[in-house]
Amino acid sequence: MFYSFLRVLANIVIRLYYRRIYISGLENIPTDKPVMIASNHPNGFLEPIIMACIWPRDLSFLVRGDLYDNKFLQPLLKATNEIPIYRFKDGFASLRNNQKTIQTVVDQLKASRHIIIFIEGGTEAVKYLRPFKKGMARMAYQATKSDESLDIQILPSGINFTDGKKFRSDVFLNIGNPISFKAYYQDGQLDEKRLLDVVTEDTFQSMRPLVFDEKERPQALGKSCENLIGELEKSDRIVQKSNKFYNILEIINNYKQKNNNSLYPLENEMVKIKGKWYQLLLSLILAPLALLALLFYLPSIFLGWLMAKMLVRENEFKSSVRASVFLGMGFLSVLMTSIWAIVTHSWVGLSLVVIVCGVGLWALLYVYSHIFERRYGSK
User: Fold this and answer.
1) pLDDT per residue as tens digits for the range 48-65
2) Topology of domain 2-210, per CATH?
3) CB–CB of 65/87 below 8 Å?
């Protein structure tokens, strides 16, 4: 219940925070089998939020075990299907808790749940795949060993940000073809260690085409292609253009340095955004309402920006903190204002809350996206 409620709020925030979210490969998600989603992890805890919002069913998440040391966080972590996984630096005593974690994962896989694992083992703001850990393959092995009828699907997923720490940047999520762990397990020619190595390596190779790799393509080309993708389907908040996405991503990953000069003019050939007269007119009509919404939410926006600037050093967590503070403070502001209006029997005040906080938020986003982004771009 709480998961679904939080998912609705998070959906609003990510659609405000990001300009567009491009999704490719939703049709590859198995519907009737247990799934372990292997994902990269470049941007703090925004990836699990984004995945939870767009995934067609509830997800479970493997998270750092030390988060469960905070007693205030434990109820929230449990309510949002977070499963603790402990690392060597958490201490030997904590590592023993991983047996319970593995059993929890096995039980959930037997129930055909979808579990997301950030297979790189940690978060880092880079645009390439880092070496994978074997934990996912090991858990799949133990689950299959305990019940050989399980057909666990390993689903490679690559999530990419044009600028992970920037407001109103774009997100690209590409979902690959599922890999059947059962096929490796039943092969019979691999011992356990070799099987884990092969599955992990095959998962890595399956994810390579799904992730922008700045090591393998010139920065100028990557920026140009990202901008070009950003102009596809402007009218849609979430875009599913599998072929266009994959083709451009393939160019980025395979293009070599020796041909870089031929693509410098591409930056100047980007499609220019031309606002239509009725969009400008509607923006002018909505501007007063948008201004009221901005004033209402400004403390939440400013607090998120300030906390990210003053308290967060790692780039991979700046956007996470800004978005989370806005989600929490924005919701609290709406809740407290609504309670005040109800307690004082101010139905006019309650109506204003609905108009300013709800419709006004949409108006603010519309005016910003159709006037400021289209006029000044996203630098």
Assistant:
1) 999 999 999 999 999 888
2) Glycerol-3-phosphate (1)-acyltransferase (3.40.1130)
3) yes
